[in-house]
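Before the break, one more example. Copy the sequence into your notebook; we will annotate it together after we see the structure.
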Amino acid sequence: MTNFDLIEKNETSNASRGGTEIFLEGLYGGTIPRDLLENFQIIPSRVRDLKEDKIRILSVHDLPNDPEAQKLQDANFRKNFHKIVYISDWQYQQYMNFLQIPYSHQNTVIESCIQPSSVNWFRKPKDQINLCYTSTPQRGLNLVVPVVDALVKKYPNIHLHVHSSFKIYGWEDRDASFEPLYEQIRNHPNMTYHGFTSHEDLLELLPTYHIHAYPCIWPETSCRSMLEAMSAGVLCVHPNYAALPETSGALNLMYQGDQDANLHANLFAGALISAIEMVNTWDQDLVGRLQYNKQYVDYRFAETKIHTQWLYLLKELLQRYDTVEKRALPTEMFSYNR
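Here is what the structure looks like once it is written out:
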């Protein structure tokens, strides 16, 4: 039995099916007892109201430059929460650096969990090397398309599958600026534009892909798409940017990126060529490497492990704030703008 009715909603999450919403569905999916969860208000990033009778946890998923995150600069605003949870150490460090969030016990890091994939290592397609891009377009799709287009001349057996759309957040209108790029993909014989793909369908497709092509130009606070690709036995190609080295364990085919788009494209192309050559051989060494990567993420981001961390945190807080009186908001509460 799920506890989805207890999930905190806001105007953004109502229409969204992104990483934050998938994280919440996992947290409230039934492994953590309902009678425990009912004592808490777990707020995903955007504060819209505060419940005095609940133990309040702010679950932070955004970057510190997000307008909503700016409120955390104010110490009085932070007092409204019994705990602030970040999803990576890199993210927490950014909040300390840019918003002067203190290094204190009020803060903690609990990573997000993933669903492990089932992989048949030697049944991946052999006649075609499937590359995939599975994030929103602004994170690097404009680099993937021209690079793959150029490499097709040398590697005619590669095919790019693009699962990308702002529809995942309910922002279909933002796709308009990327429509020319989407059309280029649709018209390319070595590319397929899948648009928005449900999380469930994407998890089914990932084991049929060989390379996760992600020249990321967006500072990820974590990266579910990359971790799920690693679990599916996909060779991931990405720069050493933001939280990607931390969350991947620096195990992938990782390269030094650059803020100059043209230079970054060239650097990505070099790494992608290496990945294609590796997949072309598809020997036991590569399979062993991908198996290790899978074991790493399946253990580190396992639902049982992550939910045990949450369970420990919730029980600890409930013991400390076991009455409504102890959970009261500070007298001078910071005014949050709706």
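The radius of gyration is 21 Å. Residues 334-338 have pLDDT under 50 and may be disordered. Try to locate both features in your own notes.
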